[in-house]
Write a structure and sequence with these properties.
single chain; mainly beta; Immunoglobulin-like; 5 domains; 49% strand
């Protein structure tokens, strides 16, 4: 049996039951199970009543409950009637697209004769509308035909049932051979050289043609390339055609390519690739503007030197730091690799040396190489840190003239070691006197090899107290009046044995009210401390020191 017999309270009584007649009638209670018979291949339920050899039968139909599960599938049927489940079809295909929505109840039984609403945001259904309602058949499936029309894209197909409380959706891709986007395959800058100056004089530009879904167009299309600069470099051309011509190329496999060639002029090129779409006449295009035709003649040269902490220790107090020159043509483009550059130091009073011969594109001591850059090195004594030198760099042009550049630079500080020492490290006040007490601040700056460093600004800050100007060390910030909280270390390169070389002396004072009063009853002095911080801005170099302050309960400090 597909059902069961129950008593008046619904308790299970089995699939066979005996009942007594009353007034010629025997009554039992029958309940269905979770299996529906309507639309099932197993057939309906048969209930049989018998007394001896006499019996009677009745067929019972068990229908599915309310829909609780909906499934949506799409099938593509070709002209020969072959059906295949698929969610993609070309817009120009003669194939039919069918949607099947299957309804099941809570126990998986097919729900018959239930309305299902289909919707789409692209194309229509067989009723030429974007919404259609169809009832399920005996197998619980409602079917309708989806017609995308002439429009390609991603259609969102939805199925709704059970008074729109049950729904599902799917995406059906309608592909197209129409071009929707053109993109250049090379994102980076393309570099070629002026004709007859050496180097590459041409490059291949390639574009990809895609439909609305990002697929490559597999049919041949006419693609037009054109130089769109208002004033393009002289002689630049596409496939050897005159500069002003649009050049047509037929694509294959979703790609089209063309050759861009340099002439006698240098500069940048902007090249456009375009196509007029057949279906609606829309103009599809893309432009690549980062194509550079390099000149062969240097026009400007700018020397440089490494900054803070870029030097390498050579021992004996010497440092080696990267220097170099950037060399550009008249359009600001880096000149070609291999261009020679000669370096020298002008009015050299710092006992520095520079490697004289270099070339553009060489490798630095840090194994770096950059377009348009010629690297060299400067070696200098650490005691000359923060001093100025003038680097001259020169190169030749194809016209035979010399291109020269100058730069006045500062020898960088390397691995600074900053020490701060207050003297005294503690100050004593009485309860009423004195008003102020001072402490000297001794600063010493050396590099990573222990060489004293002069002409270095050091900033002071403190949690308590006031800084006091010290002539010769306190310097004016930004051209203003001398500031007690900015010190400058002493520079004395001709006497590096001078113990004050690399030193700076500051002073700080504290008021007695900055310290809590002492306690007469326990004869305990009040105590606090001021933390002084010395740092070189823009570096990691810093040091701190504490000055301990006592305030006694007597009018004056005992010592």
């Amino acid at each position: 049996m597909k059902g069961k017999y129950v008593d008046s309270e619904g308790n299970y009584m089995g699939t066979t039951i005996v009942a007594k007649t009353s007034n010629g009638r025997a009554t039992v209670r029958y309940s269905s199970s979770t299996q529906a018979t309507a639309g099932s291949d197993d057939g309906n339920e048969i209930i049989k009543a018998a007394i001896g050899d006499v019996f009677s039968e009745r067929e019972v139909v068990i229908r599915a409950g309310s829909p609780s599960l909906i499934e949506l599938q799409s099938f593509v049927v070709d002209e020969e009637g072959n059906s295949e489940e698929s969610n993609t079809n070309p817009v120009e295909s003669p194939n039919q697209i069918w949607l099947h929505a299957r309804l099941r109840d809570l126990y998986g039984n097919a729900c018959q004769n239930k309305p299902v609403k289909f919707t789409t945001d692209l194309g229509t259904f067989i009723n030429t509308q974007q919404t259609i309602q169809v009832s399920t058949q005996q197998n619980g499936v409602a079917s309708t035909r989806f017609i995308p029309g002439l429009q390609a894209g991603a259609a969102t197909l939805e199925a709704w049932a059970n008074n729109d409380t049950l729904s599902t959706q799917m995406i059906f891709n309608v592909t197209s051979s129409d071009i929707h986007s053109i993109t250049f395959t090379q994102d980076s800058q393309i570099d070629i050289n002026v004709a007859n100056t050496g180097g590459d004089e041409s490059a291949i530009l390639r574009v990809k043609l895609r439909d609305i879904n990002g697929n490559l167009i597999d049919t041949q299309k006419d693609i037009w390339f054109r130089i769109v600069n208002t004033s393009p470099p002289a002689g630049a051309n596409l496939n050897g055609h005159p500069t002003s011509d649009s050049v047509m190329v037929v694509s294959t496999g979703g790609e089209a390519q063309i050759s861009v060639n340099s002439g006698l002029g240098s500069g940048t090129l902007s090249i456009r690739a375009s196509h007029t779409r057949e279906s609606d006449g829309r103009w599809i295009r893309a432009t690549k503007a980062n194509i550079v035709i390099h000149a062969g003649s240097p026009a400007t040269i700018a020397p440089f030197i490494g900054r803070y902490n870029t030097g390498q220790s050579m021992g004996g107090g010497l440092w080696e730091v990267i220097a170099g020159a950037e060399v550009y043509d008249i359009h600001g483009n880096p000149v070609d690799r291999g261009t020679s550059v000669f370096f020298e130091l002008l009015d050299n009073t710092t006992y520095c040396t520079i490697a004289a011969n270099a070339y553009v594109g060489n490798v630095s001591v840090d194994d770096d190489s950059l377009a348009g850059v010629a690297y060299t090195t400067v070696i200098y004594p650490g005691i000359r840190t923060n001093q100025y030198i003038t680097i001259q760099a020169s190169t030749g042009s194809v016209e035979g003239s010399t291109v020269t550049g100058y730069s006045t630079v500062t020898l960088p500080l390397n691995e600074p070691q900053l020490s701060l020492q207050p003297n005294p490290q503690s100050l004593n006040f009485g309860d009423t006197a004195p008003e102020w007490k001072h402490a000297d601040l001794h600063l010493k700056l050396t590099d990573g090899q222990g060489s004293p460093i002069g002409d270095q600004e050091v900033m002071l800050s403190s949690t308590k107290g006031q800084f006091v100007q010290v002539p010769g060390y306190s310097i004016p910030p930004h051209g203003g009046n001398p500031s007690a909280w900015i010190l400058k270390t002493l520079y004395d390169p001709d006497n590096d044995a001078n113990p004050n070389f690399g030193m700076a002396i500051g002073q700080i004072r504290f008021h007695r009210y900055e310290c809590p009063a002492g306690i007469p009853e326990t004869e305990t002095p009040g105590q606090t401390s001021g933390t002084i911080i010395a740092r070189i801005l823009g570096t990691e170099a810093m040091d701190t020191a504490d000055i301990v302050i006592y305030r006694y309960w007597t009018p004056n400090p005992p010592f």
